[in-house]
């Protein structure tokens, strides 16, 4: 890479079960103002803007154009959008800054899951010919993955409960978390997954500011430099995949440079407890790595923003001096189908 690029500011909403009284624009505006204030910038100072969201949650086509009202279209902005989690919007902004076409970028993502049935909406990601007509919802597919892990001897139900308990306990220190503290495992949703093994349904938004080179150092006392970032995808057909493993995560991590030196923190986008087990194995994370100190997706899961939040949370720990080399992961699709991995580092202290 010819340019150094860093996350210099991160902001997010308080994630809630429902925000019926707010539109997407009203939910976004405070976050956008917050993240620009943190960087000491105005809208006119941003060279490129990129967002991540999905029309399937909003229930209308080109819904992201309405969210631009929260950004401000004057002066005219260079803008793009991905129908993906905001982590992929950050990837696009990163490539834009690498070209030298801009020195700063604003990346934001949002999702309102409360108005409809998320389990049904997410079936639209499936193979439309062979799988979608069977209507396996997102929890049922995650349960297949969890059972495969148990059958392979990589986990059991108490181990999954331990992942949930640790994540929700970590969420107690996160003022933005939707769930935190002692959350009971509850009844089975789809065996072997209980309520506590599944993410909360809720609404939320997040934003980050990227900056290049010396501009980043002027905007942030300790920038979180993106030393590597890559994303890969598995086969669409679930039947040809080993659900107990994630080769795409491992390959993305290798290309991003994760295995070159140990990381001290990992923010993993694992909406289900079983998926953290898969990711830990693929990323070779042992007990010396602090995993999801924010509580992760089990504490708050605003769909389309959760992956961007993982990058933002990892960057924020570097900003605060709580981490020197962090890994951030985002996923999209059923059973960890597509995965993005980033490595962030702070300047030596």
Describe it for me?
With 349 residues, the protein is an alpha/beta fold. Helices cover 34% and strands 21% of the residues. The protein contains eleven helices and twelve strands. The chain has helices spanning 24-39, 55-58, 64-71, 86-99, 118-121, 138-151, 157-171, 213-219, 247-256, 273-283, 306-319; strands at residues 5-12, 48-52, 79-82, 104-112, 188-190, 193-194, 203-212, 224-233, 265-267, 290-291, 325-332, 338-345. The strands form two sheets. It has a ten-stranded mixed beta sheet with strand order 3-2-4-7-1-8-12-11-9-10. The chain has a two-stranded antiparallel ribbon with strand order 5-6. Strand 11 and strand 12 form a beta hairpin. Helix 4 (86-99) packs across helix 11 and helix 6 packs across helix 10. The longest helix has 16 residues, at 24-39. The chain is globular, with a radius of gyration of 19 Å. The model has no long low-confidence stretch (mean pLDDT 94).
């Amino acid at each position: 890479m010819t340019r150094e690029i860093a996350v210099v500011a991160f902001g997010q909403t308080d994630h809630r079960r429902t925000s019926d009284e707010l539109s997407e624009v009203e939910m976004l505006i405070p976050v956008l103002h917050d993240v620009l204030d943190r960087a000491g910038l105005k809208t006119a100072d941003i060279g490129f803007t990129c967002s991540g969201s999905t029309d399937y949650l909003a229930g209308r086509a080109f819904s992201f154009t309405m969210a631009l009202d929260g950004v401000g279209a004057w002066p005219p902005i260079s803008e793009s959008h991905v129908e993906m989690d905001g982590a992929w919007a950050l990837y696009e902004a990163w490539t834009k800054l690498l070209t030298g076409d801009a020195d700063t970028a604003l990346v934001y993502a949002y999702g309102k899951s409360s108005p409809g049935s998320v389990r049904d909406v997410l079936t639209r990601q499936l193979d439309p010919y062979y799988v979608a007509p069977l209507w396996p919802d997102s929890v049922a597919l995650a349960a297949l993955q969890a059972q495969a892990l148990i059958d392979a001897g990589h986990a059991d139900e108490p181990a999954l409960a331990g992942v949930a308990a640790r994540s929700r306990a970590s969420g107690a220190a996160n003022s933005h978390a939707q769930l935190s503290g002692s959350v009971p495992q509850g009844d089975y949703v789809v065996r072997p997954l209980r309520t506590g093994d599944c993410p909360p349904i809720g609404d939320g938004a997040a934003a980050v500011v990227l900056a290049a080179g010396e501009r980043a150092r002027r905007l942030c006392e300790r920038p979180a430099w993106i030393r590597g970032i890559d994303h890969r995808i598995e086969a669409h057909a679930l039947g040809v995949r080993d659900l107990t493993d994630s080769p795409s995560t491992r390959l993305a991590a290798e290309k991003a440079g994760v295995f070159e030196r140990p990381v001290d923190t990992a923010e993993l986008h694992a909406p289900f407890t079983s998926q953290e087990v898969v990711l830990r194995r693929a990323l070779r994370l042992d007990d010396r790595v602090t995993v999801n100190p924010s509580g992760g997706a089990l504490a708050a899961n605003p769909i389309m923003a959760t992956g961007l939040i993982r990058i933002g949370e990892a960057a924020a720990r570097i900003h605060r001096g709580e981490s020197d080399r962090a890994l951030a992961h985002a996923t999209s699709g059923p059973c960890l189908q597509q995965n993005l991995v980033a490595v962030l580092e702070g300047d030596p202290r």
